[in-house]
Design brief:
17 helices, five-stranded mixed sheet, single chain, alpha+beta
């Protein structure tokens, strides 16, 4: 049985999701530093194909300090220590939420040599877009991180997670596209002319005032508060997963989830299908992430884990785990130990 507080730490994304980040990070640190970063975040094991949100937070918190670049090699100019704290101080002084985005874009336009932020405001739409300053291949993780930072700071000043009308990325749809739904509470499209995040001004409330201690706490917890806050509410599939995480998930049926969300099973099936998934796929993903957690933790045999996950035999568990991760449970446990 999953405990309610485990639901967040169980979530995983593809290792490919952070590969651009790791490549950039290698440019601003030594091989020895990189190995230490990966070890401390639990990402050093060869063949690791799934990464937890907690591991992403840990790697960020280590690398942003020890690499000497708070954006960890994602842009050509290093972002020196305390720059992000200055950014928070800047947006904390904004009187309105549109002013938060204006200050955010102005701040980065003074620091970055690769891109320029463009802020377009109309009564119907507010768009913060990334304009490259020269011919370049978009840095996928860099674009994701900096747009999510804008959304996170906007939500911090609002006091609630500001709805996102849409997110566009100026690169091809990757094979791990589903992972973007964990980050952004909105439709996400690819192959766009520019990477951008869009808001409906009607969803903007007043900007909340924060104390110095609240600002300090926000910085200390970064990037957890601005990267993952409220992520389970972003899509129907993530809401179903959160429901399963709080329940006796193995016995839960589609009809049980539908009743929880006050809709018919057919409506729930249709909504999940629209997100490219199914109720059974969500259960399988949860089973996979529990298996990854328990194999890393040790303390129970593979046979015990197999039984607890509802597999009829250890052999079936082995086949499923190899399909999920490309490794057998034994091999995964050996490199994760």
């Amino acid at each position: 049985m999953i405990q309610p507080h485990d639901a967040h730490s169980l979530t995983t994304v593809s290792r490919l999701f952070i590969d651009d980040w790791l490549t950039a990070l290698r440019r601003v640190c030594t091989a020895q530093q990189m190995q230490v970063f990966l070890e401390r975040a639990g990402l050093d094991a060869a063949g690791t194909t799934r990464v937890t949100l907690d591991q992403i937070v840990t790697l960020y918190q280590i690398a942003a300090v020890d690499s000497g670049d708070e954006m960890m090699g994602l842009w050509s100019r290093p972002i020196r220590a305390r720059a992000l704290q200055h950014l928070l101080t800047t947006v904390a002084a904004a009187q309105t939420l549109p002013a938060v985005l204006h200050r955010f874009s102005t701040f980065w336009n003074l620091l970055l040599d690769d891109i320029s932020f463009k802020l377009d405001i109309t009564p119907e739409r507010i768009t913060l877009s990334i304009a490259p300053l020269y011919d370049q291949t978009p840095q996928r993780f860099g674009h994701l991180l900096i747009l999510k930072l804008a959304h996170g700071l906007l939500s911090w000043r609002a006091g609630y997670e500001v709805p996102v009308a849409g997110v566009h990325f100026a690169f091809a749809r990757p094979e791990f596209a589903a992972d973007y739904q964990v980050i952004f509470p909105s439709p996400v499209t690819f192959d766009a002319p520019r990477s951008a995040i869009l808001f409906d001004p009607a969803t903007f409330g007043p900007a909340q005032v924060h104390s110095k201690s609240e600002l300090t706490d926000f910085v200390k917890r970064a990037p957890r508060d601005w990267m993952f806050t409220g992520y389970r509410e972003h899509t129907q599939s993530l809401r179903v997963r959160a429901f399963l995480s709080r329940s006796n998930w193995q016995d839960c049926r589609l009809i049980d989830a539908a009743e929880t969300f006050r809709m018919t099973p057919r409506t729930l099936m249709r909504r999940l299908d629209g997100e490219g998934t199914s109720f059974q796929s969500i259960k399988d993903g949860l089973r996979r992430d529990i298996a990854i957690r328990d194999l890393r933790a040790g303390g129970r045999s593979i046979e015990q884990i197999s039984q607890e996950l509802g597999f009829s035999s250890a052999a079936n568990f082995h086949r499923a785990f190899r399909r999920w991760t490309g490794q057998t449970p034994v091999a995964f446990r050996q490199v994760a130990a």
